[in-house]
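Structure tokens please, single chain.
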Amino acid sequence: MENAVETEKHAGRRRLKELETENLQIKQMYAELQLKQEVMSGAVDMLKKMQVHLKTYSTISTVAWYR
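Here you go.
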């Protein structure tokens, strides 16, 4: 009986360690995805600003050309 209890405790500790390892991996994956999303969001914002500047420059150049 004593041996069965010890075996069960050992199995429980092993499973806890497995779950802690899996949890750490999931946290790392989440952090990576969050970083990628922030980089992509920054890139989209930069492209939008460039697009506005290009449209403005294009309009100014076109107006200057016709004068």
